[in-house]
Recover the amino acids of this structure.
């Protein structure tokens, strides 16, 4: 049975940092493109970042470019999101998603449809 579990969320002041983790089990982690999404209350779920199988190629939404860094450790079956210079508008539930399409990040990675597995999310709240 596949499990995808996010952790690392919390309350932080504007300008601060957080590091999210997403650990997957029950799947061959290094065969999945991985992505982070977020959803604020009353808004659509939006793509934040995507990383390819090896971790060598990364992609970001314009709103987080230069502040967030996605990475993965395939030996630990874990995905990370380092978030720096946080803003109140980054407040949201953050989700990780796995897609068995190794080319996912090259295409419409920020669209929610098509991902094989999702975690339950971890809450990030940034106070002003």
């Amino acid at each position: 049975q596949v499990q995808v579990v996010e952790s690392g969320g919390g309350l932080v002041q504007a300008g601060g940092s957080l590091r999210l983790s997403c650990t997957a089990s029950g799947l061959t982690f290094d065969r999945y493109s991985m992505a982070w999404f977020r959803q604020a209350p009353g808004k659509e779920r939006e793509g934040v970042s995507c990383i390819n199988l090896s971790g060598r190629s990364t992609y970001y939404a314009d709103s987080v470019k230069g502040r967030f860094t996605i990475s993965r450790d395939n030996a630990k079956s874990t995905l990370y999101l380092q978030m720096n210079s946080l803003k109140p508008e980054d407040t949201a539930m953050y989700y990780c998603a796995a897609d068995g399409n190794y080319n996912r990040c090259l295409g419409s990675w920020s669209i929610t449809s098509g991902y094989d597995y999702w975690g339950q999310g971890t809450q990030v709240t940034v106070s002003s």
